[in-house]
Specification:
about 350 residues, alpha/beta, Dihydrodipicolinate Reductase, domain 2, nine-stranded mixed β-sheet, six-stranded parallel β-sheet, 9 helices, disordered C terminus, NAD(P)-bd_dom_sf, Oxidoreductase, GFO_IDH_MocA-like_dom
Length: about 350
């Protein structure tokens, strides 16, 4: 069981020293209450170099030692997908708070295990869905929910971006590489945030012979007639923008929508064309690499003794994974297998 006393400072460790970890480390420095305690890498030399560069106190190459360290309160896990759940569960069992780079896990079963373990041990646990803490995204969602464009009828979210050489870890079946988990998770999260859990799912796309999904086109259907059109790819460009359409207009987020600093509102406001083609632009500042709002919010939540945050509770992650698993099942039955 975690010590639930209020903390003056949350002492963070980062697991992994890749590109995301570098952004996280830099943005942690912008949160005064976030201490930089430790770094873990498979290579102790890499961990030490990372710690020296970003001002972390210590470096490790053994996760057993890290999770047992009394000088660490919270751990950010930024490893390949297949390691997220095992490492999160080990840290939680040791009483550490965890923030897990998306995806939280590789399927709904693993996501539920993390949620159950966090509740059992009384620690904070969350998927690092930084999009939900982006001020522009929060305002976009709040305005849409408040009826700014009338009743929501449709959501669109795309994210197609070719990734890395074919021998990189981004393409590894062994490490649970997946377009859905890397990119499709953003459009799915957006759709569920605005429309909730769908009543029907159809999906098509391309899956590699070893099971790694490369591209998917997804339709989520709802009992009230609403629909979400989603797409993702790591072998082709699909414009990474998003929109929500309602009975009184529509709202759009420019590329890349998960980290955009503005959105446009096309609303009738009682006159059919007054605002539709002269949209209202809402602009916001970006802090650091864009992770600062999430890191500050989570650090404050841990300091208060909270175990979840209302903007992205674990049940929301589990609901997303239920949909992701259904999309994978649909792809397995409908999509052609491609070599590679």
């Amino acid at each position: 069981m975690s010590d639930s006393r209020p903390l003056d400072e949350v002492r963070w460790a980062i697991v992994g020293t890749g590109a995301v970890s570098r952004h996280i480390a830099a943005d942690l420095a912008a949160v005064p209450e976030a201490g930089r305690a430790a770094v873990l890498s498979r290579s102790l030399a890499r961990a030490r170099a990372f710690a020296d560069e970003f001002g972390f106190s210590r470096a490790f190459d053994d996760i057993d030692v890290l999770v047992a360290d009394s000088q660490v309160d919270a751990i950010y896990i930024a490893t390949p997908h297949a390691l997220h759940a095992p490492m999160a569960l080990q840290a939680i069992a040791a009483g550490k708070h965890v923030l897990v780079e998306k995806p939280l896990a590789v399927n709904a079963t693993e996501a539920r295990r993390i949620a159950e373990a966090a509740q059992r041990h009384g620690v904070f646990a969350m998927e690092a869905m930084w999009m939900k803490f982006n001020p522009s995204f929060r305002a976009f969602v709040d305005q849409a929910r408040a009826g700014r464009i009338g009743d929501i009828r449709a959501v669109r979210g795309y994210f197609g971006l070719p990734l890395g050489p074919a021998d990189s870890t981004l393409w590894s079946a062994e490490l649970s590489s997946s377009t859905l988990l890397d990119q499709g998770i953003y459009p799915v999260t957006l759709a569920l945030e605005l429309l909730g859990t769908p009543s029907g799912i159809t999906a098509d796309g391309h899956v590699r012979a070893d099971g790694v999904d490369l591209t998917e086109y997804v339709t989520l259907r709802y009992d009230g007639g609403q629909v979400a059109h989603l797409a993702a790819s790591m072998v082709q460009f699909i414009e990474p923008t998003a929109s929500v359409s309602g009975t009184a207009g529509w709202m759009t987020i420019p590329a890349p929508f998960m980290q955009a600093t503005q959105y446009a509102t096309h609303a009738t406001d009682g006159a059919l064309t007054a605002k539709l083609f002269s949209p209202e632009i809402s602009r916001f500042d970006r802090e650091g690499h864009g992770y600062v709002p999430m890191l500050r919010t989570v650090t404050d939540a841990i300091r208060r003794g909270d175990t979840e945050h209302e903007w992205h509770p674990l049940r929301a992650s589990v609901e997303v994974f239920d949909v992701l698993d259904s999309i994978r099942s649909a792809l397995a039955s409908e999509s052609p297998r491609v070599g590679g």
